[in-house]
Design a protein that fits this description.
The complex is a heterotrimer of chains A (400), B (444) and C (261). Chain A has 400 residues and is α+β, with helices and mostly antiparallel strands. In chain A, 50% of the residues lie in helices and 7% in strands. Chain A has two domains: 236 residues, no CATH class; 74 residues, no CATH class. In chain A, helix 1 runs antiparallel to helix 2, helix 5 crosses helix 15 and helix 7 packs across helix 13. The chains are: A alpha+beta (400), B alpha/beta (444), C alpha/beta (261).
Chain lengths: 400, 444, 261
């Protein structure tokens, strides 16, 4: 009982602090070209402990790998009710790896892959599920959650919640402190890069299906894909072998002491960490590459992120487009085509500038609202959620 | 046959020195009288004119305080950079510690002089500027160490050549299509060349710190300007001519001082708004002027007619590059490093411009949108589409603007005039007929 | 209620006196160099014709170019508004009023109450007005009053461009040298004038019915040319040159009505 009260108090304090921070920003920050950005950074930072350190409650200090200790989620208030429903974590469309994080939320791509392959019942524990053995049912639940979240918030997840997004923004801020300018791709290159996401999703889903063909169709297309074999052990989630978030999570968790580095290395195999559960040379190299490019080109990963692509698919293309709730809206006659929105956009979206009035949300837009913040004409750009305006552009000249 | 001397290649702006001196004195005298008279007329229409306006009246005198200030600054080593058009980036001039002054001419009498060199069909602003150069009339033009001209229309293009023989002229060529990547790249190159020229002339390097303070200074000016605009949205607390004068003085006044004085004026106007001390009856027809620039002092003809007519009209907003367009768009800087600041300045001077010298797929839509949104915000009753003789660009855009405003059920009247006083009677009849029409619509 | 309208025209001063909405009297006097005096004379004459004294006139409205010189003006109104009011008074279906005077031509779009919806005036140029006809008649060496009837016999075999009175004049001279028949040239002159007027009509839009007023409306040649070019019926009242004064008198009636409220 006392523990419960203690936990509730902790929850109240943490939520209270976050709300106080939000209020402080909204009231005190006079520079109207910055306050949405500060708010967004606050929320991004607030989500880090939520995601990495397990949804408000601990345990802190315990290694988080399966052989040792409960998942923090299991200690969560009312977790008994969640237990059976989200055994692999709550699906959120942000890059948050299940194991290296607090095992509370899961990246949707990992779940989709791991439910395609292996398709059959792998039992409890590792990639195990508790609620159903049917691969199709599992996939349906994941996709359902993904579609629901995409329709409600769209790529707001990318701009405000995703920890890798925060990483990208931190790199930008580091660059800015050294007074170095950012670079831009030419419009043609940028459009091509944005198409790359769909290619990546498609490629990895196809690879997943090929690897999982034994389980799905009963036909083994590639050797080593039977349960217990090499490919099964290390490449069941092929995308995760190249995703740069995984090594970032692992490095963060091990450096903070929440993950046992020995355990990490133990589960890696091959020369130069060729394959592994947590860290491979390939995803490490990709992390380094993405970091370097993101120092010059803002939010570089977000332009090719396949998870962002999935959200975009379920948010910006018909029939989902008509049901999406969060939208960026432009009032045509107030727009003077000054081009500020186009220039400040970190992912180089041009549709906000080019489209005539109405709904200007696009698939490449991560809803960071920098355009809304920097638009100097009152009420021209707005973020509408279910028709209600949450943020709108202000005459920030008045705040100088 | 070879052209023998350099002077044979020039446009013959030569005029006998004695004649030049006589004309200069004569036009100066007339101009001083006109300036004083315009101010008197504005005071007569608005008996309760605030004391703060006196500052702007003083700055509006071309041959007064401001000329002296600039001359003294020059003696201390500061450079003066004149510009003929709103495309010139003021922030770059300020960042190099130079003084920006607009040198477009509003003198009627010098237009006749310009007729000696170029045909009568040419835009009167151009002819007037040529005339002014012939007799060294404009103090700001004479004090300029260099001129920034933009090649926006035919008249401006040739004016650059003509003036180029008398002062160092730096041309800026805005691409006629704004939206493409190559246009933006080209425009940025043009501005880079300009920046280098400014740095060479002034001997000051434009550092990111200086550019930042210049941008922030202009932000403050834009803030004061927007306050003035906001005050005009409600019932009239300031007559249009006075507001236009305030806006125009920003083009040759010291920006910081102008900002302060305008803020003072706005506080007083806001107080008056609360006390309901209107400058003219609230049901006065609200007029918007759009079109070619209206430059002080002689070309105050149309604003005078509108606000002294019977029935009276009040000018609540204008879409003139000598007025409400000048400070309307701020420079939006993302990260305060040199690259981004420069790009921000370059884009601000090209992209939101509503000048009809552009051609675009969406039909210079931002001008149409600007007019529509202003008609709604300022509750405009009627629009006067003002074009000087010879301006093809504005004249050609009339049809499109009329169509768009017809949909808002706002009457648009095309007014065509020149730099002459002789047609004042005719213009008066038309303006009064238009205002009568607006008044009866307002009553309906 | 008795009201009067004074039209201080460039060539002639016109006066109309209205009693309870019916025209009581009209008079006209050439403006000359002293339009004020001419207006006084015309006003006195109109009063005599109406058999009333000046005090019985409740309200006088002045219009036209020289309003300041009117002998009495309790209010003033623009020619454009006056034309619209008079047009609708004369023909209740009038929605476009064309007024071609000595120096200026106007096209007015109005509603059924005579309120002005839009208008266009010929831009600082005499090529769309009576002065054009006078100059051309001089070149053709024909009396202005006769040129109209002369042109009715023509078939439209020649044309002149009428961008400018000066150029028009040299066009006429060269046609004479080519020995084109006078009646054809006369018709060409009216056609050119009608073209100018029609381009003004397009600026405000054509709504029927069309009413033609002003001094030049009396010229049969011009009326025929306009009807021909517009391909629609053009209504021309009797005494078209008095339309301005009539409109002013009607405006005066409205003013009295307002003040009484």
């Amino acid at each position: 009982m006392i523990e419960l009260i203690g936990e509730i108090l902790k929850a109240i304090i943490i939520i209270g602090t976050i709300l106080a921070g939000i209020l402080a920003i909204l009231i005190w920050v006079k520079n109207q070209t910055k306050n949405i950005t500060y708010l967004r950074t606050l929320i991004q930072v607030a989500f880090i402990p939520l995601i990495f350190l397990g949804l408000i409650v601990g345990p802190f200090g315990l290694p988080q790998s399966p052989p040792a200790g409960n998942a923090p989620r299991e200690v969560l208030l009312g977790a008994e009710n969640l237990k059976g429903w989200f055994p692999d974590g709550i699906t959120v469309p942000v890059l948050a790896c299940y194991y290296p994080s607090g095992r509370t939320v899961t990246c949707a791509i990992w779940q989709i892959q791991s439910y395609i392959y292996p398709f059959w019942n792998p039992g409890l524990g590792f990639w195990g599920t508790f609620y159903t053995n049917s691969g199709i049912e599992r996939l349906a639940i994941v996709l359902g959650l993904l579609i629901a979240m995409s329709l409600v918030l769209g790529r707001f997840f990318c701009g405000w919640i995703c920890p890798f997004g925060l990483y990208m923004d931190l790199l930008s801020n580091i660059r800015a402190t050294f007074k170095k300018g950012y670079r831009k791709f030419s419009e043609k290159t940028n459009t091509a890069i944005h198409q790359l996401r769909y290619v990546i999703i498609a490629a990895f889903l196809i690879i997943s299906i090929i690897f999982g063909s034994q389980a799905i169709f009963g036909l083994q297309l590639v050797s080593g894909t039977q349960q217990g074999e090499y490919v099964y052990n290390y490449f069941s989630a092929p995308y995760c072998q190249v995703c740069p978030m995984k090594p970032l999570c692992v490095l963060t968790e091990t450096s903070l002491g929440y993950m046992d580095p020995a355990y990490v290395l133990e589960s890696t195999t091959g020369a130069f960490y060729e394959a592994g559960y947590f860290l491979t040379s390939l995803n490490l190299a990709i992390l380094v590459l993405v970091t370097i490019i993101a120092l010059a080109y803002r939010r570089f990963w977000c332009r090719i992120c396949p998870l962002g692509g999935l959200i975009a698919l379920f948010n910006r293309y018909p029939p989902f487009k008509w049901a999406s709730i969060t939208r960026l809206n432009k009032v045509e006659e107030k727009c003077t085509k000054c081009g500020i929105c186009k220039r400040v956009c970190p992912t180089q979206v041009t549709e906000v500038y080019e489209k005539e009035g109405g709904d200007v949300t696009t698939s490449a837009c991560i809803l960071c609202l920098r355009c809304v913040e920097m638009c100097p004409y009152e009420d021209c750009l707005k973020l509408n959620v279910a028709g209600k305006t949450i943020f709108k552009s202000r005459n920030w000249v008045n705040s100088r | 046959m070879n052209v023998k001397n350099e002077s044979d290649k020039k446009y013959a702006l030569e005029i006998a020195p004695k004649e030049a001196e006589e004309l200069r004195n004569a036009i100066r005298a007339t101009s001083t009288k006109v300036i004083a008279e315009n101010i008197k007329r504005m005071k007569k229409t608005w008996p309760n004119r605030p004391e703060t306006m006196q500052y702007f009246d003083e700055i509006a005198n071309f041959f007064g305080t401001r000329e002296k200030e600039i001359r003294e600054a020059k003696e201390e080593g500061k450079k003066v950079i004149g510009y003929t058009c709103m495309f010139a980036p003021i922030e770059l001039i300020l960042a190099a510690d130079a003084i920006p002054v607009r040198v477009s001419s509003g003198w009627y009498d010098s237009a006749k002089l310009g007729n000696r060199i170029v045909p009568v069909e040419v835009c009167p602003v151009i002819r007037s500027t040529i005339g002014v150069k012939m007799i060294d009339l404009s103090p700001y033009l004479e004090l300029s160490d260099a001129l920034i001209t933009t090649l926006t229309c035919d008249g401006m293009t040739k004016l650059s050549e003509i003036l180029g023989y008398y002062k160092p002229v730096w041309t800026l060529c805005p691409p006629r299509i704004k939206d493409s990547e190559q246009s933006m790249a080209f425009w940025k190159e043009e501005l880079k060349t300009l920046k280098d020229n400014i740095e060479k002339l002034t001997g000051t390097k434009i550092t990111s710190k200086k550019l930042r303070s210049a941008i922030e200074l202009m932000h403050k000016a834009a803030k004061a300007f927007r306050k003035l605009q906001d005050v005009r949205k409600g019932n009239p607390v300031i007559m249009g001519r006075d507001a236009m004068l305030v806006n125009q003085t920003s083009m040759w006044d010291d920006i910081e001082r102008w900002t302060r004085k305008t803020e003072e004026l706005c506080s007083e106007l806001e107080k008056r708004a609360q006390e309901k001390a209107w400058a003219c009856p609230p049901d006065t027809p609200r007029v918007m002027i759009t079109g070619t620039p209206i430059i002080w002092p002689d070309n105050w003809k149309l604003p005078n007619l509108i606000e002294e007519a019977n029935p009276q009209g009040v000018i609540v907003v204008d879409e003139l590059c000598s007025g409400d367009r000048f400070l309307y768009d701020p420079v939006g800087v993302d990260e305060w490093n040199m690259d981004d600041m420069f790009n921000a300045v370059a884009e601000r001077y090209l992209l939101p411009s509503t000048c009809p010298c552009f051609t675009s797929e969406d039909g210079n839509e931002n001008r149409v949108n600007w007019l529509i949104s202003k008609v709604k915000e300022f509750r405009v009753d009627g629009v006067i589409y003002y074009v000087v003789r010879g301006c093809m660009l504005y004249a050609m855009e009339y049809m499109r603007i009329k169509k768009a405003l017809d949909q808002l059920n706002v009457p648009v009247y095309y007014l065509d005039t020149d730099y002459t006083r002789e047609d004042t009677g005719q213009i008066k009849t038309r303006v009064e007929a238009f205002l009568e029409m607006l008044k009866s619509r307002v009553e309906i | 209620m008795i009201t009067a309208g004074i039209d201080m025209g460039v060539q002639n001063v016109k006066v109309v006196i209205l009693k309870d909405g019916e025209i009581l009297a009209r008079s006209l006097a050439p403006s000359g160099f002293e339009p004020g005096k001419a207006a006084e004379k015309a006003f006195k004459e109109a009063l005599k014709k109406a058999k009333i004294s000046s005090d019985e006139v409740e309200h006088v409205t002045a219009t036209g170019v020289g309003v300041e010189m009117a002998p009495r003006a309790d209010s003033k109104v623009s020619m454009i508004a006056a034309d619209a009011k008079a047009g609708v008074y004369l023909y209740s279906s009038a929605r476009t009023v064309i007024d071609v005077g000595a120096e200026e031509a106007r096209v007015i779009k109005c509603d059924e109450k005579g309120n002005v919806l839009d208008f266009a005036v010929n831009e600082r140029c005499a090529a769309g007005s009576g002065a054009f006809i006078e100059a051309m008649a001089r070149a053709l060496e024909v009396k202005v009053e006769d040129m109209g009837a002369l042109s009715l016999n023509a078939n439209g075999t020649v044309s002149i461009s009428a961008t400018c009175v000066i150029f028009g004049e040299s066009d006429v001279v060269s046609l004479i040298h080519k020995q084109e028949p006078k009646h054809e040239i006369a018709r060409a002159i009216y056609d050119a004038l009608a073209e100018r007027i029609i381009s003004m009509i397009h600026r405000v839009g054509l709504n029927s019915d069309v009413v033609l007023v002003g001094g030049v409306a009396k010229d049969v040649g011009f009326a025929a040319a306009l009807k021909r070019k517009l391909e629609t019926e053009v209504l021309i009242p009797e005494n078209p040159e008095f339309t301005g004064a009539l409109g002013a008198a009607l405006y005066a009636m409205e003013k009295v009505g307002e003040m009484q409220k």
